[in-house]
Amino acid sequence: MPIPAVPPAATPRRARLPPLLTAELIVGAALFVAAFGVFFYLTRVVFGQHSATFDNWGFAQADRLRAVVPGLTGWVRRLTFFGSAGFFVPASLLGALLLRRRGHGRYATELLLSMGGGLVLNELLKAWFQRPRPTSALLYQYGLSFPSGHAMLSVAFYGCLAWLAVQHGRRHRWAWALAAVAWAGLIGLTRVYLHVHYPTDVVAGWAGGAAWLVLLRAGVRVFWR
Length: 225
Known about the structure:
This protein has 9 helices and no strands. By secondary structure, it is mainly alpha-helical. It has one domain. Helix 6 (105-129) runs antiparallel to helix 7 (149-168) and helix 7 (149-168) crosses helix 9 (199-224). The longest helix has 26 residues, at 23-48.
């Protein structure tokens, strides 16, 4: 007598879903490879080839903009605060608290891990590469230069908010996500405008932040599964 087939509803959920082979993880893997490739390429350009072509071009564009719009510098100084530790420490704690109260405990944990791990990673990378800051800075900034902490932590923080908007936003969720990513990019540009980071520092910070965020997201997803 033939054995009856098991109905689809009786198949365990884990068996029915291909583990880890989701569109999110495939896109994440591609983004991680691209971000890591950009970061590695910049290390070769800056520390291997000692090329300053891109940095000189970026500073020239910033200087031209400052000459055309003289009153912009004050606004840029205010804007760059939203990528500083003075903003991110309370914002991360408050954001995690609000997420937990709204029932998103996993996202609260991910936000804290993203910022804490991103800060440690940025400091380790700076200590490894030991690149001094530009001597033409418009305001004093302590520490080393490569990669930009403002750029890296902005991607880690606002990238988390962008992902949350896509996952749980009701209206215009993609618009909010793109706005968060654009805001992170704008904060990175303020560092070039103020000459406190080389353009290569900022691009490396964006790439490093994206790679770290994708890696953390994949790790958290695997852990919860």
